[in-house]
Amino acid sequence: QVQLVESGGGLVQPGGSLRLSCTASGSISSIVVMGWYRQAPGKQRELVANTFTRTSYTNYADSVKGRFTISIDNRKSTINLEMTSVKPEDTAVYYCNARTYDVIDYWGQGTQVTVSS
């Protein structure tokens, strides 16, 4: 079992910055990928960015490339998502995800990000 606790989120103006964090606990050694997904009202959940825990290889959605940065701190079992130059279309509930070696997905409770002036 893996538990995920998210922090960050909130209201930010267009062009501003925001940081999301997610800390994993439980069977941490079984995690191979951690990342962030988001879901806007009326839309499907989509991948924002993820990173492999052992290689630090990262993957980004085209819509956030060059604006968002995902990083991992293995000592703290934490991933961070630095969001810069945010746009109104970044408004969504952001979910932390952890996938284990036996392909089980765990999810955080979600944190709201609203980009508005």
What this model shows, in words?
The protein has 117 residues and is mainly β. It has no helices and eleven strands. It has strands spanning 2-8, 10-12, 18-26, 31-39, 46-52, 58-60, 68-73, 78-83, 92-100, 105-107, 111-115. The strands form two sheets. Strands 2, 4, 5, 6, 9, 10 and 11 form a seven-stranded mixed sheet that branches. A four-stranded antiparallel sheet has the order 1-3-8-7, with no helix packed on it. Strand 9 and strand 10 form a beta hairpin. It starts with a strand and ends with a strand. The model has no long low-confidence stretch (mean pLDDT 95).
Instruction: Summarize the amount of helix as a percent range.
Output: under 10%
Number of strands: 11
User: Class by helix and strand content?
Assistant: mainly beta
- Report Rg: 13 Å
How widely separated are the two ends?
40 Å
Overall pLDDT:
95
How many DSSP H or I helices?
A: 0
Q: How would you sum up the major sheet?
A: 7 strands, mixed
Hey, roughly how much beta strand do the residues contain?
Answer: over 45%
Strand and helix order: EEEEEEEEEEE
